[in-house]
Amino acid sequence: MSSSIFHRGPALAGPQADGETLESVHQLATACERCDLYRNATQVVFGEGSPNASVILVGEQPGDKEDLAGRPFVGPAGHKLDICLAEAGIDRSQCYLTNAVKHFKFEERGKRRLHAKPNSGEIQRCAYWLAAEIRIVKPRLVVAMGATALASLLGRNVRVTRDRGKLFATPLGFPVLVTVHPSFLLRLPDPEEAAREQARFVDDLRKALPFFPAGPVLEGTGS
Ligand code: SF4
């Protein structure tokens, strides 16, 4: 592990929702008014995947497509994540995927809804749900993809740019792996840089392989 000092963000140290199952917590979250983001979004977008997953992947917030579908990682960033997980030898269905913030935050530009970054208050309020997901799934590893997920899990003293690829121990028993959000790869204009960064992201994801009980999930890939 990279550090013996525990960093704890609100998802590891704050209050959390009651509920014994993901379904019951999801049901409670559909009525959430803990911050203002529920007002303009279509619906809450809760995590999905195996309740027994060894690895939880945490992103930032739902995007436009996720907001409409009510499912996480079904838009362009989710498609990129699927490609990179497969390259790393990881089966998405063996993971639990969720976001640090469960409602879509956006600004309207004409007919378009443009992504807006959640603020620290929104991240803190919504960690209430992520903490419950973690408690129920009991992962062996949590992957923080991007600054918002990292702030929710480990607080503001860990940085994606400085700490990318590192594993941070937590007092809850599982480490947190730091990496970028797959949408970062989509924003890079230079194809060579994008390919380089995608390869780095796949390398980061490969660090999750030892946390699956059976090792690499997809045959013929992985490290
Ligand atoms: S973003 Fe999170 S805390 Fe805010 S209303 Fe939605 S579910 Fe509740």
From TrEMBL:
Keywords: 4Fe-4S, DNA damage, DNA repair, Hydrolase, Iron, Iron-sulfur, Metal-binding, Nucleotidyltransferase, Transferase. The keyword Hydrolase applies. GO terms for molecular function: 4 iron, 4 sulfur cluster binding; deaminated base DNA N-glycosylase activity; metal ion binding; nucleotidyltransferase activity. Residues 46-206 form the Uracil-DNA glycosylase-like domain. Pfam families: UDG. Signal peptide: none annotated. It comes from the Bacteria. Gene3D superfamilies: Uracil-DNA glycosylase-like domain. The keyword DNA repair applies. Belongs to the uracil-DNA glycosylase (UDG) superfamily. Type 4 (UDGa) family. This is Type-4 uracil-DNA glycosylase. It comes from Gellertiella hungarica.
